[in-house]
Design a protein that fits this description.
The protein contains eleven helices and 13 strands. It is an alpha/beta fold. Helix 5 packs across helix 6 and helix 8 runs antiparallel to helix 9.
């Protein structure tokens, strides 16, 4: 199964604040917030939702196709992704802009405040998916992740016109999107991904109920934080999958991307949605135990040991033959 992932390619600048953001906020002064946090450290990491998802899929051996735009400073990052099983031949390189950058501070309660500079990402709207499909011999699924908003709309319309199945995944871009844009991006999607908060925001902005949205997409996949994930399809009982026990909670950045990487890999292997969600939750757990979004090492034996403990031998037997 050939899966392309469109989305941001970025460098993450991750900082930690030893206190609580909530303790620094004055309720009657929120309209004039002016705060500076003295942080303990700075970690510069590779990131971007498209690259993060593809890295996870590459670790699982499913050879994803990364579609996005980066700057002339992408060479080292490209080499890293190539080495970890990602097809980067469809990444557009800007001649004038740097690769996008995410700057994020996490407090002691794991709350986050972040900013995102688009940079070369703004050129993703110039990418034609047909060229990608022609190069690899066709596409079975395109995940349309957070990216340049015009690129997200263009990729969605192209998938529809070329009858390529697609997954809608707005994540960070949902805050700036109008209801009309969200309605355009989700209608007809084979999968709609969001977290629990984004689920409510999608319904609020579109004016559509949960049931109305379920009638417009194949499956709705909602991540529930530490409670795992829920998968819904109109007319069927929801599938709910819990998370494996964490050994530590180090950094929540990129956990949602890791879930998507595992879930998409499960689809590529042809397992059912429950198994795909279990794979996603296992990979997400490994990421929350690691500082950075692409700093984890996937050992097949360690992955299967943790997976078996969480989901049982029957589930493990179905998965272990596929794991790269």
């Amino acid at each position: 199964m050939r899966i392309a992932v469109t989305g941001s390619i970025a460098t993450d600048h991750l900082m930690t604040f030893p206190g609580r953001f909530a303790d620094q906020l004055v309720a009657d002064q929120l309209h004039t917030v002016s705060l500076s946090f003295l942080v303990d450290n700075l970690d510069v990491r590779r990131g971007g939702v498209g690259a993060n998802i593809c890295f996870g899929m590459g670790q699982l051996g499913t050879r994803p196709i990364l579609v996005g735009a980066a700057g002339s400073d992408f060479d080292e990052y490209r080499a890293w992704l190539d080495r970890h099983g990602v097809d980067t031949e469809s990444v557009r390189i800007s001649e004038v802009l740097h690769t996008a950058r995410f700057v994020c501070t996490t407090d002691s309660d794991h709350n986050q405040i972040g900013s995102f500079y688009t940079g070369a990402m703004s050129e993703a709207r110039q990418i034609e998916l047909k060229a990608v499909a022609d190069r690899v011999g066709g596409l079975d699924l395109v995940l349309i992740g957070a990216d340049d908003p015009e690129a997200m709309l263009r990729h969605t319309e192209e998938c529809r016109s070329r009858t390529i199945p697609f997954a809608a995944d707005f994540s960070q871009q949902i805050a700036r999107m109008s209801g009309d844009d969200i309605r355009t991006l989700l209608e007809g999607a084979t999968y709609l991904f969001s977290n629990e908060y984004e689920k409510g925001l999608i319904e609020s902005k579109t004016g559509w109920s949960d049931e109305e949205i379920l009638a417009k997409v194949g499956h709705r996949v909602t991540t529930l934080g530490s409670r795992g994930v829920r998968i819904e399809k109109l007319g069927l009982e929801p599938i709910e999958v819990g998370c494996p026990e964490e050994e530590a909670k180090v950094d929540p950045t990129g956990v949602g991307d890791a879930f998507r990487a595992g879930f998409l890999s499960g689809l590529a292997w042809g397992v059912n949605h429950e198994r795909a969600a279990q794979i996603g939750c296992m990979l997400a757990t490994l990421v929350i135990e690691t500082l950075g979004t692409q700093e984890y090492t996937l050992s097949r034996a360690h992955f299967m040991d943790r997976f078996t403990k969480a989901y049982g031998h029957e589930a493990a037997t179905e998965v272990q033959g596929h794991l790269g």
